[in-house]
Amino acid sequence: MERPQSPPWQTCEVPEDLIELGRLAGPWGVKGWSKVVPYSQDADVLMQASQWYLRPPEGRFGRGFTAFAGAVSVEVEQCKPHGDGLVALIEGIRDRDLVASIKGASVWVPRRHFPPPADGEYYWVDLLGLEVVNREGVGLGRVVDLMSTGPHSVLVLKQAEAGEDVERLIPFVPAYVDEVDLAQGRVLVDWQPDY
User: Are 52 and 74 in contact (CB under 8 A)?
Assistant: First the structure.
């Protein structure tokens, strides 16, 4: 009878610039592969990163999770598309039961390891927190989220007005977005507060 495999990870210090990109969804096959659910349709960062940080799942995914308590670092041998997600082979794991024990763990990659985006393209994470101002200099709020609507993304803004949080949605398309200035932390738009 074969002995169960020992976990190949240890709790570690984590970089400050970690970005959550997906979660592990359980074993795929019998040779240690894990299904991965990416949070974005463009999962290039996950496929190119050679190191991931895993954290225990929260909420309903965390019930009964005992594989590790803090963040752990793992080396990724291979990661490739499969169906509507990914499958990954983590260094030192060749046991289906060990893969099952980390089901639900969240997958994180340092922001500095993201490949540079093409001109005129931005990672969503870089847009969060930017101040949005229209051509007249009127502040419309800060970017708190982005929504994918199929053909394009939509900036979700929040701003306090008269003691209440006002939410605005602005299509992230050249017709309305004049400039994104990451260095200045702002987005210039052709949009009015009452739209």
Answer: yes
